[in-house]
Amino acid sequence: MRARIFPLSGFFQRCFCRCLIASTAIFALVLFCLPPAHAQDATAPPADEVIVNLAAGRVIIAVVKDAIIIGTVENPIEAGTHPPIPAELSSRRAGVMLGAVEWYSVTTQQDIARLDRDLPRLKGRMNREDPSMKAVGEQAEAKDIIAAGQGPLEALNAAAKYLHNKVELPNNEPLAELIIADYLEGYGPEVWQLNYPLQQERQRGDYWDSRVLHPRFLQFWPPEKKDARTLLEFHYPPTGSQPTLLELLQRKDPRLVKIGESDSKMYEVANQILQGQTNKLKAGETIQYLRAALGAISPPKSRQTMAAIGVDTGFEWILPPPPEPIAPRSRRKEQEREEGAPTLLKPPPGN
Fold first, then answer.
1. How far apart are CA 269 and CA 289, in angstroms?
2. Phi/psi of residue 151, each to 5°?
3. Total domain count for the chain?
4. Residue 325: inside a domain, yes or no?
5. One pLDDT digit (tens) per residue for the chain, 351 residues
């Protein structure tokens, strides 16, 4: 399957790249923006201590005959990780925020941002004179997606101003991602991925200014006519080697084979997915299959969610997210990590 890329720089140039729907060993990261151990420039302002928790895991989307189904799975490798959670943006649109979603200042004991939870309220201020808006031309659907991505961009930049230590992200890994699925009037179902890169500039000594750049837009649905209509899958962090649900189906993973053998309808769903014909499936049977499949392949104790956007019914929960534990005011002790655990300041080996 190919993703249509809509870069937000200069003119909107339509180009294509292969959509590498690769799974990854998901882990929860905690970023400690600490003053460096070695001496800083005496003129540099003191750095805040900031904790950033990630929404990490996989997002699986099936576009079927009568609905868009969104399933998510968390990988709870570390305390403080959040599961990816679909948010209702309108009756016919949902978004899933991945990456750096929770920002907390240990220095001031204040919550800075909670992007995944606040996503429905993040309304960006679009400047209709912005060249990026004019460059889209007649593509009204792309303008609409740009507007949807502006609120998270402004919220990320408001949080990133507290980040003053150098952050080393793996190559091409964004600070955050936004997955959008919706039905657009006169256009049909669509699925987009917005990647928000981090840019840092050294000011004095080890003091850095941080800002989040305009997102990179990739359209994954509708696919090109020659491409399969099958499952879409997104991961954060994007690096790693875990197989996707589709790849597991193609490899005849015993856990999934067992589900198909349990019921003729489940076998038919799996077969249509493999043949690239999810658009011929109905929501009810596909939801049943995906719930069983995600339960079979998910790590123990991982939190899952599932929602659907029905053609006629709009957004509705299939498996709502579990209640979140109440975070204590002092999070430093709660967020203590094992020695050598990966952070955004020190990526895991091999990245």
1. 7
2. -60, -50
3. 1
4. no
5. 545 544 333 222 222 232 323 333 333 333 444 444 344 444 444 456 788 999 999 999 999 999 999 999 997 767 788 999 999 999 999 999 999 999 998 888 889 999 999 999 997 665 544 444 444 434 445 788 999 999 999 999 999 998 888 888 888 889 999 999 999 988 999 999 999 999 989 988 888 899 999 999 999 999 998 999 999 999 998 876 689 999 999 999 999 999 999 999 999 999 999 999 999 999 999 999 999 999 999 988 899 999 999 999 999 999 999 887 765 544 544 445 455 555 565 555 554
Host domain of residue 252: 2-319
217 is written with which tokens? 């837009």
Sequence length of the chain is 351
pTM of the model: 0.80
| Residues 82, 96 contacting (CB under 8 angstroms) | no
Which residue in this structure is represented by tokens 């009756």? 91
Give the DSSP H/E element, type plus range, for residue 262.
Answer: helix 254-262
336 belongs to a structural domain: no
Could you count the other beta carbons within 10 Å of the beta carbon of residue 239?
19
Q: Where are the beta strands (DSSP E) in the chain?
A: 2-6, 15-18, 30-32, 50-55, 57-63, 67-74, 86-90, 93-105, 110-114, 176-184, 188-196, 198-204, 207-212, 216-221, 232-236, 304-310, 314-319
Q: CA 193, CA 196: separation in Å to the nearest integer?
A: 10
DSSP reduced 3-state for 294: helix
247 falls within a domain: yes
The answer to the question of residue 126 being in a domain is: yes
CA–CA distance, 6 with 158 (Å, rounded to integer): 24
Q: Are 88 and 29 in contact (CB under 8 A)?
A: no
CA 297 to chain centre: 19
* Residues facing 212 on adjacent strands: 198
